[in-house]
Structure formats: structure tokens, C-alpha cells
Amino acid sequence: YTTHEVAGRLAGSLSEVGTSKWDLDTPALCVDLDRLEANIKTMQAAMRRFGLATRPHAKTHRSADIAKLQLAAGAIGVCCAKLGEAEALMPHGIDRICMTTANLSPSKIRRAMQLRKRAPGFVQAVDDERNARDLSAAAQEAGVVADVVVDVAVGTRSGIPAGEGALRLAKLVDTLPGLKLRGLLSYDGGAQHITGFAARKERALANIEANAGTCAAMKKAGLNTEIFSGGGTGTYNIQHLVPGFTDVQVGSYVFMDMQYLAIGREDGQPVYDDFASSLTVVGTVLNNRFPGKLTIDAGSKALTLNVPHAGVIGEPGADYNAGSDEFGVITFKSDPSRAYAMGDRVEMIVPHCDPVVNLYDVMYGIRKDRVERVIPITARGKSQ
Ligand code: PLP
Ligand code: MN
Questions:
Q1: Is 284's C-beta closer than 6 angstroms to any atom of ligand 1?
Q2: Nearest ligand 1 atom to alpha carbon 236
Q3: Is the distance from the beta carbon of residue 187 to the nearest atom of ligand 1 less than 6 Å?
Q4: Quick one: which ligand is closest to 304's CA?
Q5: Ligand 1 geometric centre to CA of 176 (Å)
Q6: 130-182 pLDDT tens trace
């Protein structure tokens, strides 16, 4: 950030600390600190029970302050999806970073080597032989030994398929000069939101079986498997059943969102409330003239177009729609005469936490309905 931006943020934080959540200018992204802290504690305690470590994904919050809370609670490091995130977080002392996305272009590879120079705790994913050779050349040129994990695919998004090819890549990384093999990644994005715990567990375990086989084969070949990382908020309580697994890359659990609330709890309850919904957007009623509906000042630029749509707190019969860029519409289907005054505030649970957070410069850390601290979204927009 420029000095000007930092000064602006500080000035903002000085004036807003102590303000009631209901007096903030809107749309305001708010995080309830009691809930956030409880979620971090709950996840750490669960992993202690399961014998796994946590390496929370910072793609969700993009915030140095929240990464610090996770590390202070016992996380062994954080993950980043983008180099820009890692570059933004590192100056804040976040230096144990695992990049879960491979860096392909020459410029990204150069930036990755600079990060490795600054922090011995920087680890990066590779899922391709040519990329491994490029990293090796760049590491030697930069005069560093780059730590690498092989991204082994679960599904078809990223990664090299489990099996012979993955083992061959791991062996190559192990022998290439300038690289140090640390283990493997296996994140199953497709399993996280499967509705119903039993179905989710069955799919997640079946999907990752071949990856666990690759991990075992790497071990047998004498390769380093000190990292076997994956898992998310939907499978945090399933990953310990995977042989050789070391840590979970959970992201959304700190905030939760409408998408995760719907996936169902282990005991069969339809609402997934293992973690508390801590992240909300407060908006203001701009128009109440038309019966059965309200126009508020939070549209797709405040809440995105993701589904399920935002949930209006305290109004189970209301339906929110981010129909316009700057305006949202709340429709009271079951109670069309529901009355709100112009200027009234409404609070909403966000549809999907990660993309919403990226829309704001700061989130307001709220305790008992007052702003306790203003939390900069350190890596907001840093998607390159
Ligand atoms: N790991 C990787 C590679 C991811 O892409 C993500 C999120 O998309 C996560 C971990 C975190 O998952 P969640 O937010 O479901 O906890
Ligand atoms: Mn997400």
C-alpha cells in the first residue's frame, strides 16, 4: 500500500472504533470477533483430536490480522492461492506460506523465487514436469533451494493425476538441482459442498484413495512426504481417515456462508453449524414505497451474484436478490406487509465468503455490536 492508503485506513479506523454496527456507513462488511475466535478455536481443537495440523487457506480472508490469529492458535502455516496474496501477507510477518497454485509463467516463477529468498517457509505447488524443470533453473539462477509439493489431482481442476505419472514427477523434483521435495497436495473442491455428511464422506474418501496410494508409493520410494495436505471446511472432519494425511487447508470455516450452511451436519441436522456464521454485510433500506419489497444499498458489488443468495438475518420469509450492481431487493413473500422505514439497517449472511471479502478494503471487527477494530483486507484485489 502507498503511505497515503495506509494513512487513510488508519484515520478510518480511529474514527470508526467504538461505533455501533448499526451506525456504520453501508454497505459494511462485518466480522463478529467472538464467533471468528470461536471458529479458529473449534478447528484447532478438532484437529488436535484427529491428530492433524491446520494450514488455513488465506484465500478466504486475504487478511494479515486473521492469518496471525490462526497462527497464534497453533496453525503450522497458511496457504495462498495467488502470488499476490503471498507478497501482500509476507511483509506482515506471515512467512510460512504454502502456495497451492502452480506458477507457470516466467514472471511468476521469478516472483516465487524472490518470495523463497525472503522466507525459508515458502513452499510452492508443481503439477507438471516442464514446470518443475523451469523452477529448478530459476532456483539455481536465484541462488535458492525452492521447496516444492507435488499437486496430485482430486477431480479435474488442477494437479497431475494420481499414480505412476505423479510418482515420476515427485522423483524428478527430488533429483532436480535447486528443488527440495516436501510432499504432496490433494484438495478435493468437488466434495466440500456435497449435501449430507454420509454422502460427503463416502465421496471424499473414494475420491482421494488413489492420492493416498501415491503418497504411500512416494514413501516406499524413499521420497519426502512430510506434507500431505488438502481438505476444506466441508471435509475437515473426514480427512483424518486418509492414510498419511498431515494437515487441512481449511478456509471458509472462519466466516461461513450460505453455501456452507446448506451442506448438513455429521449428526444429520440439515444446517451445518459446526462453525458460527461470523461474516455479514449490513445494508441500508433506500426505498420502502413498493408493497412487499425493499430496495437496499447492497447489490452485486456488495454481495456478488453467487447462489444461494444472501440470507437476511431475522427474516426467514424474506428473499434477497442482488439484481443490480448497486442495489439489492428484498422480497417478503410470506409477509408482504412487513414494514421497514427508509434508512433502516438490514444484516445479511453472505452467499460465498471468499469473493465477497475481496470486494472490500476493510472489514469491521465487531464485538457485542460495536466496532472493536478495523481489519484491513491486506491482499484485497491481489489476484495475479
Ligand atoms: N485448498 C484449496 C486448494 C482451495 O482451493 C480451497 C478453497 O477453494 C481451500 C483449500 C479452502 O476450502 P474451504 O474454503 O472450503 O475451507
Ligand atoms: Mn470458496
A1: no
A2: 16
A3: yes
A4: 2
A5: 29
A6: 999 999 999 999 999 999 999 999 999 999 999 999 999 999 999 999 999 99
pTM of the complete model beyond 0.90: yes
What is the value of ipTM here, to two decimals? 0.99
Which distant-in-sequence residues (6+ apart) come within 8 Å of 131 by Cβ?
Answer: 102, 103, 104
Q: Is 232 in the pocket of ligand 1 (CB under 6 A)?
A: yes
* Crossing angle of helices 129-142 and 164-175, rounded to 10°: 10
AA letter at 349: I
How far, in Å, are 76, 148, 217 from residue 121 at the CA level? 10, 11, 26
- Which residue's alpha carbon is at the smallest distance from atom 15 of ligand 1? 232
Q: What HEC string does 32-46 produce?
A: EHHHHHHHHHHHHHH
Percent of the chain with pLDDT over 70: 96
Of ligand 1's listed atoms, the one at least distance from the Cα of 353 is 14
pLDDT at 13 over 60: no
- CA of residue 5 to ligand 1 center, whole Å: 30
Average confidence score pLDDT of the chain? 96
Using most ligand atoms within 8 A of CB, pick from 39, 42, 55, 59 the residue to mutate for ligand 1.
59
CB of 304 closer than 6 angstroms to any ligand 1 atom: no
Q: In what order do the strands lie in the sheet with 179-186?
A: 53-54, 247-248, 227-230, 179-186, 146-151, 122-126, 97-99, 78-80
Mutate to test the pocket of ligand 1, among 43, 47, 55, 57 (most ligand atoms within 8 A of CB): 57
Dihedral sign computed on CA atoms, order 126, 117, 174, 51: negative
* 45 band by pLDDT with thresholds 50, 70 and 90: very high
Over 60: is that where the pLDDT of 206 sits? yes
* DSSP state at residue 126: E
HSE at residue 278, side-chain half, CA atoms within 13 A, is 25
Q: Tell me: pLDDT of 8 over 70.
A: no
Give the containing element (helix H, strand E) for 294.
Answer: strand 293-296
Q: Distance between CA 255 and CA 244 in Å, rounded?
A: 29
